[in-house]
Amino acid sequence: MDLDAFSALLDDEGQALLASLRHHDPADELATATRLRREHPAALVSAALGQARLRQRAAAKFGDDAYRMYFTPDGVEQATRTAVAEHRAARFAALGVRRLADLCCGIGGDAIALARAGIEVLAVDRSELTCAVARANAQALGLDGLIEVRCADVTQVDTAPYDALFTDPARRGGREKKARSASAEGRWRATGGRIFDPEAYSPPLSWAVEAARTLPHAAIKVAPGIPHEAVPEDAAPEWVSYAGDVKEAVLWFGTDDSIRATLLPSSAGLTSAGLPAPAVGPVGRYLYEPDGAVIRAHLVAEAAAHLDGRLIDETIAYITSDELRATPYATAYEITDTLPFNLKKLKALLRERRIGTAVIKKRGSAVEPDELRRKLKLDGPNSCVVVLTRVAGAPTMLLAQAVPTTRTASGAPGAAPTPLVDR
């Protein structure tokens, strides 16, 4: 979609066409396109159908707002999920931020959340089409009074009039080719489109850090896998997950926070206390798998202390204890069997218990879950969790049942054991 095709979607005919495609079924697209082209220009029909598909994809991130918003293919993929953007906007608002420069704004997902938090936003991107989309989104959601969209090279923007900065550098090959600055030319590396070298971001991380240091508050969005040694000493890194999936890492400047893991949608947060590595001990009745944000933030020791637990191996991020404790920081499993890894024994045990559905998890094991599943030939009405890992250095298989979340008597989030299958 080019700028002219997008502009056509904003006039009366384009708006009516988009409204008619709200409940469009992609399986009927050929017939729909044929019918609509009898009454509308072919280019407009193509643009509207493409936008309808993007809106349907975007609904997972933006909810009902997606059907009032506009997207590009890269914009849907790279835009921040609403819950994550709202969390970040709330942090900026709590810091007293009133005017913020959003650099590399994309289609405006973060700018929208910031504006809804009462913050005046300058949203900047180099792509004219992307800026047009961001501008249309601000207007569609009634936020154009708080969001100014500017098409420019972010490295040339004067941020002095603002009291905070948010930068989301390009970290994917496709977008990088379009948006990188001259200083980053030829310096990026990508695998499957993803860029792993922070200096290959567009703009480079070093530029973003220097820009962040010029204002009272700032945040830089980086890849979740950023090495801890690449985090500047004056930055407070935060890893954010949503429903257990790690979504991003952010380097905060101008705060007193330490390393932090934030788990959405609950907003549970865990911060570094500088604890030593947890003790290692035998597998207890319960196994806890820390949330990915906790692991990325290197806060397994803090989670273990919260659970009064221990590690099953000094190199494995599994926590165990003999008592069940409520926690937002990990998923609990009740262990039924702890055995040395043996495929023949595992197959016999699952066949005996009539296990037809198994969730296979691995950490510290060379076994591939898909390959193992084919070999197990599961059959039966029951289910279990198979954990392939190491215990005190030895390859081990743990059979378990997930512990469902419930409420404690006090009303706080808790967990209760579930009966084991075929005891």
UniProtKB/TrEMBL annotation:
<feature type="domain" description="Methyltransferase">
    <location>
        <begin position="102"/>
        <end position="165"/>
    </location>
</feature>
<dbReference type="InterPro" id="IPR041497">
    <property type="entry name" value="Thump-like"/>
</dbReference>
<dbReference type="GO" id="GO:0032259">
    <property type="term" value="P:methylation"/>
</dbReference>
<dbReference type="InterPro" id="IPR029063">
    <property type="entry name" value="SAM-dependent_MTases_sf"/>
</dbReference>
<dbReference type="InterPro" id="IPR041698">
    <property type="entry name" value="Methyltransf_25"/>
</dbReference>
<dbReference type="Pfam" id="PF18096">
    <property type="entry name" value="Thump_like"/>
</dbReference>
<dbReference type="Pfam" id="PF13649">
    <property type="entry name" value="Methyltransf_25"/>
</dbReference>
<keyword id="KW-0808">Transferase</keyword>
<dbReference type="GO" id="GO:0008168">
    <property type="term" value="F:methyltransferase activity"/>
</dbReference>
<protein>
    <submittedName>
        <fullName>Class I SAM-dependent methyltransferase</fullName>
    </submittedName>
</protein>
<feature type="domain" description="THUMP-like">
    <location>
        <begin position="330"/>
        <end position="401"/>
    </location>
</feature>
<keyword id="KW-0489">Methyltransferase</keyword>
